[in-house]
Design a protein that fits this description.
Two copies of one chain form a homodimer.
Chain A (H helix, E strand, L loop, with lengths): L5 H14 L7 H8 L3 H18 L3 E5 L5 E5 L4 H15 L5 E2 L3 E2 L2 H4 L2 H15 L6 E5 L4 H11 L2 E5 L10 E7 L6 E7 L8 E9 L3 H11 L4 E11 L11 E9 L5 E5 L6
Parallel strand pairs in A: 5-6, 5-9, 9-10, 10-11
Antiparallel strand pairs in A: 1-2, 3-4, 7-8, 11-12
Chain lengths: 272, 272
């Protein structure tokens, strides 16, 4: 039978835990994998626990009982979180990003894995303590961010569509009013996408007036489910009247100043 | 100055490397972080290298020179890859998944982080050796999978839209013919999304006749860029005439049998 050193076990256990956030892994998996006693694996886990806490890069939780084991819970230090937001503000202030109509071009950032991985970790950290069943987003730009949050929370992602698709079976559709443009829009979701009685988190790229988040609450009612949290990358605080109040954000965008520069700063609604 | 044990360093270095696939990390980052000599960190890296190879769960590569350092390259064993494909076939064979029109409901799987993380690792492993600049997909269902492949390859994701968006600035649009329905469709992409002379990988959920992949080749020409690889989760081999030949897939779907059961098996085009 193959033998493993403590160093080797610690490296492999760290990788396995980090790659499956919020998933409970039974210690038997490790004892079998490494042909090691439970006490040996427990000591390995203590070393891993200690360093994650020391560096504020998440934690290892122990769950007792028959279905028990250990799980990795994502985390990031307050310093790292603010540093990330500040760096993102500098990237966003590039004048080339201002598009006719005073939109900010953020598509490349929303599809940049390095940025989205970190942003997802920050947002997920705000919801780690909640009992979440699904992470919900509306197509398209927020999908990678919502996916990262779902992955960190160890739950299923649900993507609300703007129109029905023939490949999704029976769907539930609702109309809602976009808070910023006042236009009536459509949202639809396959009937089988969400189980009744579920707790959902809504994740999106931008928060304007909050019309979409408000629509999500309505849509979830059709599934006998509820919204328990909302998180966005950028909060447009230039729009003062919001339809929702309770949400987490990473960056605040306060429109353009008299010199046509985007006004941006780290958000006061970052919960890390 | 804080001291760290070898076990602690190995756990933290593993986490940092695994969370930034294909990104070169300079050894100075680790020596400063742990207040340790370069030779000490090098020894830590040897332990990590060894265990990844021993378990076939990726590898650590050393890059020499001024911009050098180490990077984690994702990987999965052939056994694990086949086991994953077999398990996915069982999930997909559920009769509830057959939707009027003989479509297979796969939306929940494409938005399941555990499945997509593994599928992304398998597909990315096929392209690890290529010099890739972007991973391209077409909205919507393939986005999480394409995002995972982009993350594993350490490159930017690009999402082609079905229609123009006012928030994306000048765009390039093309029309293409869907190979399976023969309908003319539209694809558009912001002009600034891809730099000229780039190598791109196309990732999608389903391969039918390959019309979309064919359209992507045309679209990339408008960006003076080229397609160097294609990967899908499910290949519909019931459609015999394909517009593209060279691609990687994980599952093969051969339509419904006489009892109306989906015929599925692990793909022969899996390159792991």
């Amino acid at each position: 039978m193959e033998k493993f050193t403590r160093n080797q076990r610690i490296s492999a256990i760290t990788k396995i835990l980090v790659e499956s956030p919020n998933k409970i892994i039974n210690l038997n998996m490790f004892t079998e994998m490494f042909n090691a006693a439970k006490s040996t694996v427990s000591e390995d886990l203590i070393a891993i626990k200690d360093i994650l806490i020391k560096l504020s890069i998440g934690k290892i939780e122990t769950i007792s009982g028959a279905a028990g084991g250990v799980k990795y819970v994502c985390g990031i230090s307050k310093e790292e979180s603010i540093k990330f937001a500040e760096e993102l503000c500098i990237i966003l202030k590039d004048r080339e990003r201002i598009i006719p109509g005073n939109f900010l071009y953020v598509t490349d950032l929303m599809f940049n894995p390095e940025i989205i991985h970190k942003a997802g970790t920050i947002l997920a950290s705000a919801f780690n303590k909640l009992d979440v069943d699904y992470v919900v987003t509306v197509e398209t730009k927020g999908i990678p961010l919502a996916y990262e949050v779902a992955r960190m929370l160890g739950v299923q992602l649900v993507v609300v569509r703007r129109e029905n698709k023939v490949t999704e079976g029976p769907t539930v559709s609702i109309n809602y009013v976009s808070g910023s443009t006042n236009r009536i829009q459509n949202m639809s979701l396959p009937k089988r996408a969400i189980k009744p009685g579920s707790n959902c988190i809504f994740i999106d790229d931008f928060m304007k007036a909050g019309g979409t988040a408000f629509g999500i609450i309505d849509l979830l009612k059709e599934f006998d489910s509820q919204l328990v949290g909302t998180g966005v990358l950028i909060d447009n605080i230039d729009i003062k009247h919001k339809l929702v109040n309770d949400y987490v954000s990473i960056i605040e965008f306060n429109g353009l100043d008299e010199k046509n520069n985007a006004v941006l700063h780290p958000s006061k609604k970052n919960k890390v």
